[in-house]
């Protein structure tokens, strides 16, 4: 019985060691100032794209879930929806989204996003945090308004 238990413990320890050796490292473990890594860019662009997709489909509740906890604690869902409808129609009615530079500064991710709709073309600077293994959007501010098209 003791020999069988020892064998089981040894097998468990070996399996745990092998699995932990195969674990994928956290891409945001190092938040050093500078350009984002390829993996960080991928995760950030997916997070932003998923929020914009929710906005495009009119699902503001889902879009709100991509916001950082700090943002959600200071801006209600109703305020979020109002702000987006009033100031960010280009995200709601976008025809195309392009991702530019991604960098980390002072523990915050900065991602440039060009949003193009039938009426506007705007470059936005998205600011994201990574807290408790979760990306969250803190803000998206106009970096510059490239062009306003009138119809």
Give a structural overview.
The chain is an alpha+beta fold and 151 residues long. It has one domain (28-148): Roll (Nuclear Transport Factor 2, Chain: A), CATH 3.10.450. Helices cover 44% and strands 32% of the residues. It has a 5-stranded antiparallel sheet with strand order 1-2-3-4-5. β4 (120-131) and β5 form a beta hairpin. The termini are far apart. The model is unreliable at 8-21 and 145-151 (pLDDT under 50).
Topology:
Blueprint: H1 2-22, E1 34-35, H2 38-56, H3 60-64, H4 69-74, H5 77-87, H6 89-92, E2 96-105, E3 108-116, E4 120-131, E5 134-148
Antiparallel strand pairs: 1-2, 2-3, 3-4, 4-5
In short:
The protein is α+β, with helices and mostly antiparallel strands and 151 residues long.
What characteristics describe this protein?
disordered C terminus; globular; 32% strand; alpha+beta; 151 residues; five-stranded antiparallel sheet; Nuclear Transport Factor 2, Chain: A; 44% helix; single chain
Beta content = 25-35%
Largest sheet strand order = 1-2-3-4-5
CATH topology value: Nuclear Transport Factor 2, Chain: A
Which class in CATH terms?
A: Alpha Beta
Give helix and strand order, one letter per element, not per position: HEHHHHHEEEE
**Largest sheet data:** 5 strands, antiparallel
Average predicted local confidence, pLDDT? 84
| Tally of contiguous helical segments | 6
């Amino acid at each position: 019985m003791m020999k069988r238990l020892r064998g089981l413990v040894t097998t468990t320890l070996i399996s745990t060691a092998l699995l932990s050796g195969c674990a994928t490292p956290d891409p945001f473990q190092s938040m050093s100032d500078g350009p984002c890594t390829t993996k960080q860019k991928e995760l950030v662009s997916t997070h932003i794209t998923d929020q914009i997709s929710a906005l495009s489909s009119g699902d503001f509740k889902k879009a709100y879930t991509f916001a950082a906890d700090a943002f959600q604690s200071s801006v209600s869902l109703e305020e979020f929806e109002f702000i987006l409808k009033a100031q960010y129609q280009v995200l709601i009615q976008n025809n195309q989204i392009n991702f530019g530079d991604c960098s980390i500064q002072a523990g915050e991710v900065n991602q440039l996003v060009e949003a193009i709709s039938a009426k506007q073309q705007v470059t936005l600077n998205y600011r994201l945090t990574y807290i408790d293994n979760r990306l969250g959007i803190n803000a998206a501010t106009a970096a510059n308004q490239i062009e306003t098209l009138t119809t």
